[in-house]
Amino acid sequence: MSDYLHLNLFTMNSVEHVSIGSWRYPGDQSHRYRDRSYWTEVARTAERGGFDAVFFADVRGIYDVYGGDHSTAIEKAIQTPSNDPAYLVPAMAEVTDNLGFAITKSTTYTHPYQLARELSTLDHLTDGRIAFNIVTSYLESAAANLGLDGRMDKQTRYDRADEFMDVCYALWEHSWDDDAVRRDPDAGIYTDPSKVQSIDFAGEFFSVPGPHGCEPSPQRTPVLYQAGSSDRGRDFAAKNAEAVFVSQPTERGVRDYMDDMRDRVAKFGRDPGSIAFFPGIVPIVGETEEIAQAKYESYKAQIDVDGTLALLSGFIDMDLSALDPDQKIEHIETDAIQGTMNAFTKSDPDKEWTVREVAQFSGLGSTSPIIVGTPDTIADEFEHWFTEVGIDGFNIKEVVRPDSLTDFVDLVVPELRSRGLVREAYKGSTLRESIFGAGNARLRSDHPANQPL
Ligand SMILES: Cc1cc2nc3c(=O)[nH]c(=O)nc-3n(C[C@H](O)[C@H](O)[C@H](O)COP(=O)(O)O)c2cc1C
Questions:
Q1: Ligand 1 pocket member 372 (CB < 6 A)
Q2: Which of 90, 236, 273, 423 has the fewest beta carbons closer than 10 A?
Q3: Whose CA is nearest to atom 11 of ligand 1?
C-alpha cells in the first residue's frame, strides 16, 4: 500500500469520453480537444494538484453496435471524433516537470517493435514520465479498419498480448546494457557493439530479431497499467501490470477485485503488495452541500441516454437498443469488456439493474462510483477508500471539461493535502518513482520482464 493517495486524470483526446452528453453543458470546453493549449492547461492544472499522471484512453474504430450502425456514435460524438493521444505528450511535458502520461495502446492492433520504439522515444523526451496502459481492445469495427477479418476472440487477443509483452520486455530490458553508449570521440566509438544484443524472438504471432533501435530510456520499460477484468484478463494483469485500473461501481466490487488480484499476483511469483490499485471515481464538488447537489442535478440533466446506451453497447458488445428500458440486464460472458458487464451483474449480488437504470447511472463517468459533496465530504470518502479499503489512488473521471479537474484541484486537493493524504511535492523524477517511491525508476526485480531471455 502507498504512503499517500495517488491521482490520475482519466481522459481522452476526444469530445466525449465516458460522460456522454456533457459537451452540451454551458461552458464545457470538450470541443477544444484539438487545441494544444487546452491540453497544456490541463497538464499545468493536474501538476498543480499533485497528480501522478494524465491517463489517456484510446480506441480504434467506431461504436456501431447500438442499433446496428454508427449514426448515434457520430451524432453524439461518442469517442468519435478522437485524435491519437501520444502526440499530445511532448507539448504537455514541456509545460510540466513531474506529471506523468499514461498512454493506452492496443496489443491487438499494433506491432511490438513499433510500439516499443514509440514508447522509448516518449520516455526519453519526458525524462521517464511514461506509462503504457496495455489493452487488447474490444470494438469489432477496429479490426475491420485495420484489414482484419474480424475481432480476434478474447483468448487469442490475450495470447497475442502475452507474446507482445515478451517482445517488448526483451527490447526494453535485455537488448542494450546500461553502459552500451560510450560516446568516445577519441576511439571513434559511439556505442559498444558487444553491449547491444539481438533478441532473436520467434513466436506464434511475432518474429523480431532486434536489437532495439533505441538506447535505454530512463525507465526502460514504461510503467505498466492494465484493466483486465475477465478471468483471462485478470491473469494477464496479474502477470504484467504494476498498477491496475479498477472498474467497479461499488466498494464491495472493488474489494473483491483487489483480493482476487492479489492472489493471482502471488501465483506469478510477484509480491502481492507491489501492485497498485486505482479505482475510477467521479467526484462532484461544491463549496457547500447545496452547491454540490445543484451541480449534480444539472450534470444529470445533460445525460444523453441514447448516447450512453450506444457507448455501453460497444463496451459489452450487446445492442441495448433491442431491449425494453425496464428489462433487467442478464449476465453474459462477453468478448468485449467483461468488467462493464460484471459491474452491473456481479459487483453487488443484491442488486439487479434495468437498462434504464444502467443508462442513468453510467451517464456520468460510466461504471464508477459518484461522490457528491463539499471538499470535506469528498476528502472523508477518499480517506475511507485509502485507509479502510486499501486502494493506492484514484483515476478521476471528468464530467465537465475542464471544470471537473479545476474544481477538484482548487477545492478538494487542498483538503486532501491538509490531511496528509496527497503529497505537497513530487518524489523522484520518473513516473515510476512518483508512484512507487524515489529510487524505483526501473521495474521491480520480481517482475517477469526481468527473467533472462
Ligand atoms: C477500465 C477499463 C478501461 C479500458 N480502456 C480501454 C481503452 O482505452 N481502449 C481499449 O481499446 N480498451 C480498453 N479497455 C478494454 C480492454 O482492452 C480489454 O480488451 C477488454 O476489457 C477485454 O478484456 P477483459 O474482458 O479481460 O477486460 C478497457 C477496459 C476497462 C475495464
A1: no
A2: 273
A3: 137
